[in-house]
């Protein structure tokens, strides 16, 4: 097991920062930030218009983190975009995204660093072991649904396309305009990176799920599932006219 200082040094050496979008998770933020700061000294938190006391919590960490505040709740996609833009402004090459509810383990940051050393141009995605976890049946279905459509759109299979624990090579995505604004954004980025020829590498991660009484989520089952379905419909047509030809051309170039 690598110690905390080694991880801090390795992430800084590789140009990796952590971006944490948050909405109404003030109860978990102190423990999340204290944990992450043990492994990474470059942390950006995007407060997505939280009406709870998130601002007060973040002020307590203002000397240790970079804070980006959205004036109102714009959605996870917009929060991620704001975090990416700030990371690029600060000169980082990679962004690791983590959820703010405590489900992601900061010690797994070392796994992302190891993988990006082997594959510097990759998008590294955390793969959860969902069996035996206390998750909603709707979440399990959503993940299987997303995995299926990701395979259709990219001809690649992933076991977990819904995880929020990821490392994005933002230096390669700098000119990618993100069109969606909420939970479908993470799927949009995955598909478009695959079409661009960016390798997607999974790493095994550990997760913790708070009790149902403690969970706070901005996910709106009907509205967000509808948005994801619309995105999948669009990507089905886009794959035929752009995605598949683009991937074929890249494959032929590599072979030549």
Topology:
Layout: H1 4-14, E1 16-22, H2 29-37, E2 43-48, H3 54-60, E3 66-70, H4 76-89, E4 94-97, H5 109-118, E5 123-128, H6 137-154, E6 166-168, H7 170-173, H8 185-195, E7 200-205, H9 221-255
Parallel strand pairs: 1-2, 1-4, 2-3, 5-7
Antiparallel strand pairs: 4-6, 5-6
Mean pLDDT: 89
Kindly report the spatial arrangement of strands forming the biggest sheet. 3-2-1-4-6-5-7
Low-confidence parts:
none
Beta-strand share of residues: 5-15%
Shape: globular
Q: Roughly what percent helix?
A: 40-55%
Quickly give the structural class.
alpha/beta
Radius of gyration, Cα only, in angstroms?
A: 18 Å
Number of helices: 9
Total number of beta strands = 7
Instruction: Give the biggest sheet.
Output: 7 strands, mixed
Order of helices and strands: HEHEHEHEHEHEHHEH
**Terminal CA distance:** 42 Å
Label this structure with key terms:
256 residues; alpha/beta; seven-stranded mixed β-sheet; 9 helices; 14% strand
What does this structure look like?
The longest helix is centred in the last third of the chain and has 35 residues, at 221-255. The protein has helices spanning 4-14, 29-37, 54-60, 76-89, 109-118, 137-154, 170-173, 185-195, 221-255, and strands at residues 16-22, 43-48, 66-70, 94-97, 123-128, 166-168, 200-205. A 7-stranded mixed sheet has the order 3-2-1-4-6-5-7, sandwiched between helices. Helix 1 (4-14) crosses helix 5 (109-118) and helix 6 (137-154) packs parallel to helix 8. The protein contains 9 helices and 7 strands, in the order H-E-H-E-H-E-H-E-H-E-H-E-H-H-E-H. The radius of gyration is 18 Å and the shape is globular.
């Amino acid at each position: 097991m690598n110690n905390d200082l080694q991880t801090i040094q390795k992430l800084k050496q590789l140009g990796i920062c952590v971006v944490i979008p948050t909405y109404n998770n003030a109860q978990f933020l102190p423990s999340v930030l204290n944990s992450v700061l043990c492994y990474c000294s470059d942390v950006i938190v995007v407060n997505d218009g939280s009406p709870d006391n998130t601002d007060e919590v973040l002020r307590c960490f203002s000397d240790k983190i970079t804070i980006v505040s959205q004036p109102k709740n714009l959605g996870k996609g917009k929060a991620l975009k704001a975090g990416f833009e700030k990371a690029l402004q600060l000169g980082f090459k990679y962004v690791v995204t983590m959820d703010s509810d405590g489900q992601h383990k900061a010690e797994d940051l070392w796994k992302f660093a190891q993988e990006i050393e082997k594959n510097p141009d990759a998008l590294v995605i955390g793969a959860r072991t969902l069996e035996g976890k206390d998750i909603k049946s709707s979440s399990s279905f959503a993940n299987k649904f997303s995995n299926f459509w990701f395979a259709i759109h990219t001809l690649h299979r992933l076991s977990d396309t819904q995880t929020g624990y990821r490392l994005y090579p933002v230096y390669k995505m700098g000119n990618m305009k993100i069109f969606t604004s909420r939970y479908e954004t993470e799927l949009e980025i995955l598909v478009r990176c695959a079409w661009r020829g960016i390798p997607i590498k999974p790493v095994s991660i550990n997760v913790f799920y708070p009790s149902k009484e403690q969970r706070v989520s901005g996910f709106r089952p009907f509205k967000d599932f509808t948005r994801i379905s619309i995105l999948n419909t669009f990507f089905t047509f886009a794959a035929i006219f752009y995605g598949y030809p683009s991937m074929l051309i890249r494959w032929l170039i590599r072979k030549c």
